[in-house]
Predict the structure of HAD superfamily hydrolase (TIGR01484 family).
Amino acid sequence: MKFVFDLDGTICFKGQPLTPGITTALANCMADGHEVIFASARPIRDLLPVLPESMRKLPMVGGNGAFVASNGDTIEVSAFSVETVEAISKIITAFKLPYLIDGDWDYAYTGSEDHPIYRNLDPLKLAKKVVFTELKDIVKIVLFPGEQQQEILTELEKLPISLYEHMSENIVDISPSGIDKWNGLIKLGVLEGDFVAFGNDANDKAMFVKAKESVCVGMHEVRKYANLQVASEEVAIIAMLQRLSKKYQC
């Protein structure tokens, strides 16, 4: 069985690397004969630092499906159309919005250095911070709407994009149209009903509804699309993983 894991808020907390307990549980899952896949909102660049080196070549989906990697190599990147980038740029200008914009590797950032996103941004210094216009292919955009959120959402919803609101962080996360975690998993050869998914947020819905079993970590409303729910506590998460690993062991 394939086991697919979101990272932040699911098996990784406060931007810190996986704990020894979680790492061991994942290793045991693989020892039981299962395949482990990571599926995160983070681009591959920022996904790698929270994983132990032994797991950095596992299959992974980044940027909510915009990046797909296997064996340590990015095998596919899905970018916005030029027209969509121009339309989002006009919204950024009109509302004077801070942003994080990811290209296929480098990034542009104008948000606060106190925001959690900045603290998790390229910790291994693998990329370059550049001016927005220097990014060739725009793959993922995070906007910081402040108190203008509803007005901004009204404008964004007119565009051909995939959009996720993260209320706790007051950010709007944007991917190209039709791009989500399930779309990325398909590109890794994952079949509907042939995997177990762990997640905790709205961007996990797409894979929850296609999974054989899905586990919501915590009490986010996305839990209504999962058939299992577990407390956002390491001991509980590990116990659930062990239970499902043994259940589907060949």
The domain at 82-176 is CATH 3.30.1240.10 (Hypothetical Protein, Haloacid Dehalogenase-like Hydrolase; Chain: A; domain 2). The first helix runs from residue 20 to 31. The longest strand covers residues 161-166.
